[in-house]
Write the structure tokens for this entry.
Amino acid sequence: MRTRHWAAVLAALPVSISAALAQDASALRASGLAAICAQCHGTNGRTQGDTVPGLAGRNREQIASLLREFREGKRPATVMHQISKGLTDQQVDTLAAYFAAVKN
């Protein structure tokens, strides 16, 4: 019985490792994308001052929704329309997850 238990654990291990690596890769991709945001929103979304809103630690769904609204021209902006137009849905979701995970 114990042998079966360990066999199941070992069989699931590659899946767990793959999922963890995929999350790390996603975070790395997001941090690369996040460089686009750094000029206005600060490094890792930590804005200095209160002219531009910070992104670090904000709600993931809120960030994604705002980016999509900018991209579609549904939300007033100065430069966000142009910046967000170059983002795919996957990139929007990756950025939103990245900034939501950054400690404020």
